[in-house]
Amino acid sequence: MSESAANLPATPHGTQPAMPAPAGRRHLDVFWVDDPLAGTRLHVSAAARSWGVQPDALCGTREHWLAYVHPDDHAALRAAWGGLSRGQGFTLEYRWIDADQLERRARERGYLMPHTEGAPAHAVGLLEDVTQRQQALTTLVESEFQLQWLTESVPFPLVQVDTAHCVRFANRAYAQRFGLPMDDVLGRHLRELMGDVAYSRVLAHLAEGFAGRRVDFEMELEYPHDIGRRFVHAAYTPQRGPDGSVQALVCMVEDITERKEVERERFRHEREFVTLVENAPDVIARLDRELRCVYVNRAVTDAFGVTPADMIGQTLAESPLPASVTGPLDEATRLAFETGTEQTLTLHLEANVEPTRFAHYNARVIPEADRLGEMEAALLIVYDVTERTEAERERNALLLREQAARAQAEAAALARDQFLAVVSHELRSPLNGIQNWAYVLENQISGGAPLMQRALAGIKAGVEQQVRLIEDLLDATRVMSGKLRLTREPFTLRTALESALNSVRALAADRRITLHASSTLAAHEIDGDADRIQQIVWNLLTNAIKFTPEGGDVWLSADLVGDVARIVVRDNGRGIAPAFVPYLFDPFRQADDSHTRRTGGLGLGLALVKRLTELHGGRLHAHSDGEHRGATFTVYLPLHAGAEFTTRPLADAPAHDGPLPSLAGLRVLLIDDQQDARDALATLLAQVGADVGSVGSGQEAILQLDAWGPSARPQVMVCDIALPDEDGYVILQKIRWWERQRVSAGTPPIAAIALTAFAQPDDRVRALASGFHEHLVKPVSPHDLVRALRVQARL
């Protein structure tokens, strides 16, 4: 280390960081003279004392000077000094650390003096204190940054306009409003940016602002291009120069279009609400916590004869309303405020017009809370329910009368049934005697005169006819009371037809009517009541004989249409008038109801035929070409319960022709509690290749599925709805539960078809809503069923 370096004064900046110098005191400029070749400082001016250093302490080796320079700036200062010897002047700013460890910003400038004859070259320099100026510059830069950040952060347009109405300054929001870059906005005239229409509207406000007054206004302006009509709130603030004159306007422009639209919409809703409330038929009022009326609509005048002005500002008790109204309403309102819950009550008042009548009102008291949840008001609604109350009372009285009338009707029906039973007994007893005596006489005069034989035959036919009339009368009574029942069992249909035909031969012979019979039925059986089937055919044959002139013809034929038996009774008699066809099957209705009727009977035969046919699951069809052109009655009966038959017009041919499509490879689960119907359907499906599992209940269905297993489960199930223990809807849910337990997720479920006698539209809706994929009505044709199976199985 050199001697000069060893004698340097100690400076604290070598041991701890220097502190920035406080503002307020500025050092004097220090002048110095250097020997650039020797690298020594020859002279330092006395101004160094203002820097806290003696001038002599800074002379000599330059290390004395560096002792007061921040170490990080040494290299730059040495390089600048080194350049002096080569004639390179410098200007350098660095950090000066004084003896008190205060840091200041210094600027040093050095210059090489020109050579003179006989004198070495010298360098001169000047040290300036630029701390305050640097701080002021930093503050200014920071202020400009803050100002720029503030103006750019403002979400609405901000612009400074000079006296020529040109843009001197604008923030980004203002430029974006017109879709322009910032540089394209500065210096442009407002007319170019806003357009002529908008500029002309704000021109008066600009003039007022440049006159020295702050302007604040709202206005709808028509801007050019895509901006369109916008509502703005603008504030123009004058900016004055040193002489007090207005040199510019600072304009803040806020787009309030959406707010205006909301205000318009709110005003519209308020207007509609006021219109609605004021014209509402119900009394609507608002009460404050002191139970004073702050609002009431004009319906109060129609209801109670007082005006809204009479009630505004008054409590309920002080209002001119009758005490019978104010008392209950006052109590309910207090309770609503206490509990915070809606209160309802009913008022029964004596009517103003007729004192003997009462007016009935329902009232609601609805508490209203403020934003803090405190009850601040209550909404009172009173509406007239007089008509509804009186209607309910009248309806209740009518219901009581209807119930009494029903009880009387049921009692009368019971008395009628008892009377008819007695009549039947009393009429059958003498008829039985007459019939027995007729057989005694027949045996006594066997082989007697033809006249005697004819007389006995007439007696026997009359007895039989009377018995039939009695039976018809009783059956009609059972039909009307819903008590007619059938005894179902399999029987041969042809036998019943022959019995009915034999029972009318005597009547036909008496009227010289020729009977023609033909049948293609063999030993086909039908599930039903043999006596009732015979009664159907007997009534049709008797009816045909009665309305056919003497010497006419009656035909009875029977054949098969698929699995349905078709029975046709035809005559060439009086026929049916077109006007009477709609009433043909009504009880007690006869085409000839005059006092000079040419035929007898009670008018019950065809009504019974229709009802008995329907109870067997069949259909009845009547046809006539008109009066005196004969009539044809056709009865369709399924051979077995649940057998399929067409629902097309009964005179038509079968619904489908040709063989049934194949169901090969299809496994079907059939569920029906009727054994015969189930067996018939299973046989039909097996004949077309289906693998059928036939069960009679839901429990048996689950057992059958377990026997098949998940991998061999059926693709389709056909299920009846009306089953004894549990209906088809419950069975379907059980099968779906079985699938969820036994079948892997994502596997398509078993397609479900409902085959039922419930044929109303609501029945179909319920079936599909319960999970069935198809709803078929019994009886269904084989073609329709096979088609549905193929559709559901996607064959």
TrEMBL record:
Residues 422-641 form the Histidine kinase domain. The modification 4-aspartylphosphate is found at residue 720. Residues 388-417 form a coiled coil. One of its GO terms (molecular function) is protein histidine kinase activity. Residues 215-268 form the PAC domain. Its EC number is 2.7.13.3. Keywords: Coiled coil, Kinase, Phosphoprotein, Transferase. Signal peptide: none annotated. Residues 1-21 are annotated as: Disordered. It is an enzyme of class 2 (transferase). It holds the Pfam family PAS_3. Residues 667-793 form the Response regulatory domain. It catalyses: ATP + protein L-histidine = ADP + protein N-phospho-L-histidine. Residues 143-194, 269-316 form the PAS domain. NCBIfam families: sensory_box. This is histidine kinase. The lineage of its organism: Bacteria, Pseudomonadati, Pseudomonadota, Betaproteobacteria, Burkholderiales.
